[in-house]
Structures are given as C-alpha cells and as structure tokens.
C-alpha cells in the first residue's frame, strides 16, 4: 500500500500560516467569511490522527481502529501521514498562540479511521493490496454509518476489488462523497491505482504553486479534479508536529475540505449536487476537451463554489456517470492552462511547453495558479449547467 504523499520534512518554526501558499491562492480569508465547514464530518481513512496535535485539539472525534496489528488506537498515528491529512482539512492554527497552520475547512470535524498499510516496506505489494481490499471497504462503511459526509482516502494500491467497489457504492447511496489520491508514480510506470480508479470515487491529482502539474502526480482516466499538492505546510504527526510535503495525498485532503465548505453552506444539498457545483466551478483551461488525463475536469476553486455556485442540478443525478458506463479516453497533448477569469468562458491559444501563468491581480481563488504543464481541456465556466459527464475509467 502506498501513501500518496512523499515523506515529510519538518517545517521551519515561524509563522506557519504565512507559508501556506495554497490558502492564499484559494482566498481562504474570504472563504472563511462564507463557510468554515462547520457541521460537516470528514472521515480520514489513514494511519491514525493525533488528536493532541496543537492545531487539531478539539477537532478529532471518536473513530475506529482497523489497524489492530499496530500498537495504539485511532489516535495513534504510526506514520504521521493521517495527522497531516487532518491538518490540511481542519487545522485551526492554534499552535503557539495562533501562529500555527490552518486547514482549508477549520470548522469541520475529523473522524479518524485507522487502517494498516501506511508502514510501507513491511509487506509485498500483493499482500498490501490484499490487506487494503480487506480492510478499507469496512472502514468506508463504518465512516458513512458514523455520519461522515466526506471520506478522504490518501492511500493507494495497485488493485481494486468487488468489495471495495460495493463499499463505495454504499457510501454514495448513503449520501456521502469519496475522494482519493490518484498516486505519485507517474514517473515510475504510471499504473492505475485504487481506490481513485474505483467507480464512484473522485480521483484527485496535484499541481504546484506555479500552477504546473506535479510530475509525480499520476494521470489517466481516474483523474477527476486537481488541487494544490506541492510545498504544503501543515500540521502532521510526530516530531515537531509540522511538516512540508508533496503529493496527491495533500491535494486529496484539500478537495475533501472544499466539499466540506460547500456542504456546510448548503446542508440540504445531496452528494450529487455538491460534486456538480465543484465541477461547475473548476479552473477553466484551454483546448477542446471537457477533461484531460492530467487535469481531469479542472482545479478546485472553493471560493467560487461558495460565491457563485450556479445550478446544483437534480438531487439524484450523479454528475460523473462512472457507475454504469465507461467511455473511451482521449490522450492529451502537452499544453498549459490559461489564467482563469470570473467572467464568461473564453478561448486561449496555447503554445507548446509554455511558461507557467502569472498570478492574478485580483487575488483569491482566481485560479491563475492552476496552470497545467501537461494536459489541458476546455472546462465548464462559472454557473454553466453540467450535463452528466462520462467517466473514462476502465
């Protein structure tokens, strides 16, 4: 089993919030005037969550430990990774008198669901895959039955199973959303990973602070959206309790947090409506496709979802129809995204291998940082109705 984030390094002891570029890029201060994620529970299916981390005190609910082969319980993070995901989602910044690191949805609560496998290297890949497919489906069902609306899985294995697929469908039928990292092995074979490739799961890729696709972030039919995932400063487990990381794990946590923000503001919406609005408001790249294998349908813009969500659509229609039908993928040529604009959809001509786009002057959540170095698509503009989108998963 792989954690879809690279091993962390301690963050420098200073004003941690000032180092969180992703929050500035997405307009966090304005977001928190509209929603903090209050009232929404996000399940973190991972290596455990340390509830005593200074930036997570009071944020972590009673969960469950499925990693019985590891000492401790769901509050014992045997790797540090799960605490990091919780920090990116719901960190409060309370460390050192308010100089700590924030999550994108600091009002949300974390349901810790500890599973084994994060101590990679102790098992063969086949054994890790088998263990994941035995335990994680039960963890998903537990999370849903415990009230989680959003399920974050920043872990990946090389094989899925019918049990995993059925548990995801159970979560969707119960009204939840499941987000998973697509993996960090793009430069090492780029094989499809699960649960991101499982029907019904929202697969998340990573971009950096200049808006470029992170080279390790895997690409393919399983990519639905992208989010920041490089040079990420956040609360984490062990050591100093603060880390700097890179990977699709981090991007997944931010996508989960974005869903929590939107659901908190619109608690009457269904999972289908929340996801549709997230897709409606993604950063809009150039090109002629609705999605690309590198960007999916686009990059999350949580401020836009809150300010101008558009029509959430029918409550019972899933915007990504990957549960019953599979469409053919169309490979993307190397391209980049143009700067996003709050106005109508526009077309931009893209030259091969261009430089990253500059940041927008108007600030917060403009999407300028979401330039993609490889793969681009014409995406839906703000407030444009989204038809049922066809998944390209096999």
From TrEMBL:
This is Type VII secretion-associated serine protease. It comes from Streptomyces gardneri. Its main location: membrane. It is found in: Cell membrane. The active site is at 46 (charge relay system), 81 (charge relay system), 249 (charge relay system). It holds the Pfam family Peptidase_S8. Residues 37-298 form the Peptidase S8/S53 domain. NCBIfam families: T7SS_mycosin. Keywords: Cell membrane, Hydrolase, Membrane, Protease, Serine protease, Transmembrane, Transmembrane helix. The lineage of its organism: Bacteria, Bacillati, Actinomycetota, Actinomycetes, Kitasatosporales. Residues 330-362 are annotated as: Disordered. GO terms for cellular component: plasma membrane. It is a single-pass membrane protein. One of its GO terms (biological process) is proteolysis. Belongs to the peptidase S8 family. The chain crosses the membrane at residues 368-389. GO terms for molecular function: serine-type endopeptidase activity. Residues 342-362 have a biased composition (Low complexity).
């Amino acid at each position: 089993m792989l954690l879809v984030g690279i091993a962390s390094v301690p963050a420098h002891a200073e004003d941690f919030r000032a180092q969180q570029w992703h929050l500035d890029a997405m307009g966090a201060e304005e977001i928190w005037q509209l929603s903090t994620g209050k009232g929404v529970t996000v399940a973190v299916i991972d290596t455990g969550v340390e509830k005593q981390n200074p930036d997570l005190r009071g944020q972590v609910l009673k969960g469950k430990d499925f990693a019985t082969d590891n000492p401790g319980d769901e509050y014992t993070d045997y790797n540090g990774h799960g605490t990091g995901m919780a920090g990116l989602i719901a960190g409060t910044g309370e460390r050192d008198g308010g100089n700590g690191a924030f999550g994108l949805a600091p009002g949300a609560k974390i349901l810790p669901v500890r599973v084994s496998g994060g101590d990679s290297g102790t098992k063969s890949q086949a054994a890790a895959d088998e263990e994941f497919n035995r335990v994680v489906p039960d963890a998903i069902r537990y999370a849903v039955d415990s009230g989680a609306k959003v399920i974050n899985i920043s872990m990946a294995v090389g094989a899925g199973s019918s049990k995993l697929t059925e548990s995801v469908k159970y979560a969707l039928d119960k009204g939840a959303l499941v987000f998973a990292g697509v993996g960090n092995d793009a430069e090492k074979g780029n094989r499809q990973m699960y649960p991101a490739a499982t029907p019904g799961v929202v697969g998340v890729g990573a971009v950096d602070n200049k808006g470029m696709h992170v080279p390790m972030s895997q690409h393919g039919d399983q990519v639905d959206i992208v989010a920041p995932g490089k040079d990420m400063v956040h609360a984490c487990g062990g050591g100093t309790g603060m880390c700097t990381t890179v990977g699709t794990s981090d991007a997944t946590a931010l996508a989960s947090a974005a869903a929590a923000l939107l659901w908190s503001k619109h608690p009457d919406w269904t999972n289908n409506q929340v996801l549709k609005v997230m897709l409606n408001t993604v950063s809009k790249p150039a090109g002629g496709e609705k999605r690309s294998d590198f960007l999916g349908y686009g990059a999350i813009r949580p401020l836009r979802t809150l300010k101008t969500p558009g029509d959430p659509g029918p409550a019972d229609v899933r915007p990504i129809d990957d549960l019953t039908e599979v469409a053919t993928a169309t490979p993307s040529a190397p391209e980049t995204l143009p700067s996003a604009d709050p106005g109508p959809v526009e077309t931009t001509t893209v030259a091969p291998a261009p430089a990253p786009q500059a940041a927008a002057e108007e600030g917060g959540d403009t999407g300028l940082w979401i330039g993609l170095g490889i793969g681009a698509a014409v995406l839906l503009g703000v407030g444009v109705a989204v038809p049922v989108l066809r998944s390209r998963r096999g």
